[in-house]
Amino acid sequence: MTALQPARGTRDLIGEDFRRHHKVAETARRISALYGFEEWATPIFEDTRVFSRGLGDTSDVVSKEMYTFTDRGGESVTLRPEATAGLCRALVSNGLTQSNLPRKVFYTGPMFRYERPQKGRYRQFHQIDIEVMGAAEPLSDAEVIACGWHILQELGVAGATVLEINTLGDTPSRDAYRAALIAYFSAHRDALSHDSRVRLEKNPLRILDSKDETDRAIVAGAPTIAAHLTPEAAEFYASVRRHLDRFGVPFRENPRIVRGLDYYSHTAFEFVTDQLGAQGTVMGGGRYNGLVEEMGGPPTPCVGWAAGVERLAMLLPEAPSAPRPVAVIPVGDAAEAPALDLLQALRRAGVTAEIAYRGNLKRRMERANRIGARAAVIIGDEEIAAGVAQLRDLDAGTQEKVPLAEVPGRLA
């Protein structure tokens, strides 16, 4: 019988892979807490409208990539392809839009998109995500970016990334820019890809995101938003840049970073790397001031970002080491009870400890070496009578007698 394998686009996280994944998530959890973010958890599947409203019916995610199905009750539900829409829905569903704003939220968990698996990108993947919901000030934009930069620094991957920022302006700025893009791309309509011709009618900003090589050559000559910014939008962007300087976050401006949906405004940013092939973004986000309203709530300014755990894990300079346990080794039937007492005493003292389930002294010592134990605690009849244990340092090869009560303290 053929052994079953993981579904296409998924993988098991075991050993080093899991330790890398865990380090990314735990580091993000720890650093975001320093910035005042509280962790939320939302369902893995939602009413499909959460994402069709949140991502736009014409987006590739909604039209091509979502895992959507009808449940037994006849409801259309979707495995979440990203976290932000669900978090905004949770803000509204739980009646949190009228008090204690802004809400600063951290999230981590699995997401699902049906797309071609490639390096660092899976159909079930994981993200870390932070959102500030209910703050309109440019300082909040800069702070979420600074938090992301801090996380990258703590992971030791900041040097492998570059922060690129842009502004999408306010509504008048975007309206003027959209008109300029329509005029420009209409002059090149016949050369555009089919997808970009469709976008020209519905959302011309999304042409700037095209991966088609012919489109990209045309995009290179497209106008930028800078000439279309209102004074207010220009000052907002300048303020974000000043705050980033104060936070000590280096950046470069990239006028081609855009977000296609109308409720995105002002700041857009990405941390990019050249170490993961063509898919170079490891963290990206921006300001979205209309998504909570799409979920049935009041107008609520928000800003945040998401980062791929798998992609960040690939950038880690080295995998975290597994904790090295202490092996407790009873010799003889009479030693088993005191060995188990010592085993639990070690664990309560915060020491990773293991005991082999069977075997003589030689076989148990062989297992201690296989699991990379740093020490072995040996208890036999003589040790029981004397109230001691033989403590063997498996790195130095030394051994000494230690009173049983003192063993946890020596190894903690």
From TrEMBL:
SUPFAM superfamilies: Class II aaRS ABD-related, Class II aaRS and biotin synthetases
Any one GO molecular-function label of the UniProt entry: histidine-tRNA ligase activity
Catalytic activity, as annotated: tRNA(His) + L-histidine + ATP = L-histidyl-tRNA(His) + AMP + diphosphate + H(+)
One Pfam assignment: HGTP_anticodon
Keywords: Aminoacyl-tRNA synthetase, ATP-binding, Cytoplasm, Ligase, Nucleotide-binding, Protein biosynthesis
NCBIfam families found in the cross-reference section: hisS
Name of the protein in question: Histidine--tRNA ligase
Organism: Roseomonas nitratireducens
